[in-house]
Structures are given as C-alpha cells and as structure tokens.
Amino acid sequence: MIRALARILGRKVLRQGARGGAQAAVAPRARMYQDQPPQREAVHRLGGGLWLPGEQRRAQIMSRLADAHLLAVLPLWLGQWVLALLRCLALISCKAPTAGFSQLGASASALLRLPLIGHLRRFRRSGRKAAQAHRARAERPRLPADALPQAAERPARP
Q1: Beta bridge partners of 75
Q2: Could you report the per-residue pLDDT of 47-59, keeping only the tens digit for each?
Q3: Which residues contact 48 (CB under 8 A, 6 or more apart)?
C-alpha cells in the first residue's frame, strides 16, 4: 500500500522493514544506470543462447544503432528487422514460440523508437566532441618556464 501511495504521489517514501529497525528509501521514478551490464543468468529452457531478456535485447539494438556511422544506420536498421525475424523463426523451430515472439516484440520496440535513437546519436556525438576538445587542449604545446617574461621584464601597468 505504501508503494502504491508513493507511485500516486510520485515522492520518496521511507518505510520500516519487517523487523521494525531498517528503513529503505522508495523512489518510484528513480533510474539507475550501471557501467557494466549484468551477467546473463537467465537462459530460456528451450531457446538457449538465442534468447535474451527483453531489456537487454532492446539495449543491444539501441547501442548498435547509436554507435554506427551515419551512412550505416539505415542498412543496419533494416538488417536488424531481418535478424529479428530470423531469430523469431529460429526460436519457434526450437519449440520456444513464446521466447521467439518476446524477442520479436523487444526488437520491434527498439527499432520503432526513432526519436530516441536520434537523441542517443546526438548525445553521444556531443560527448565525442567534448572529448576531442579536451584531447586537443591537452596536446597543445606549452611554453617552457624560461620562455615566459619575468616580472622585471614586464611593462608596468598604467
């Protein structure tokens, strides 16, 4: 009930644990990001290595499209549709139709988010530009200390 109320209000709620002493912050709209993707522990009983959890499949497709060269985005986008259909057919032939259709749905949901793909591409491009400017600033030659004018040689300020 506390979580439902927190979702309605959209606020952080502190609640006591089952034993009464521990408190946990519940933030319904919080997003957590990880540097390293989690190891894949879930393997479909019939699909085996073809099956990925939906979130990982969507992230895999989005990162491929976001990192690709501009001229390669359209062929890659079309190729991802073909691969999604082939993956679905392969999972159906392995007698895992639910896994096949879930993979097809995850792929379609990632491929149909064109504005999000555009946003990711712009965001990553700005990050690359900032990194390039930082490297250029670091590579700029510096004057040695003896080449700088000393205080006695500098003209006096009026």
Answers
A1: none
A2: 556 677 888 889 8
A3: 94
Report the C-alpha gap between 135 and 129 in whole angstroms.
Answer: 10
Residue 53 CB-density burial (10 A; 0-12 exposed, 13-18 middle, 19+ buried): middle
Other beta carbons within 10 Å of 3 = 11
Find residue 24's DSSP bridge partners. 15
Domain ranges of the chain: 43-134
Q: What residue has token string 């976001």?
A: 66
The single residue listed with the structure tokens 């392969």 is 90
Buried b (16+ CB within 10 A) or exposed e, 9-44: eeeeeeeeeeeeeeeeeeeeeeeeeeeeeeeeeeeb
User: pLDDT (tens digit, 9 = 90+) per residue, 13-48?
Assistant: 444 444 554 555 555 555 656 666 556 555 555 555
Strand positions, DSSP E, the chain = 13-16, 23-26
> Are residues 117 and 65 in contact, defined by beta-carbon separation less than 8 angstroms?
yes
| 77 closest CA partner among 104, 44, 50, 112 | 112
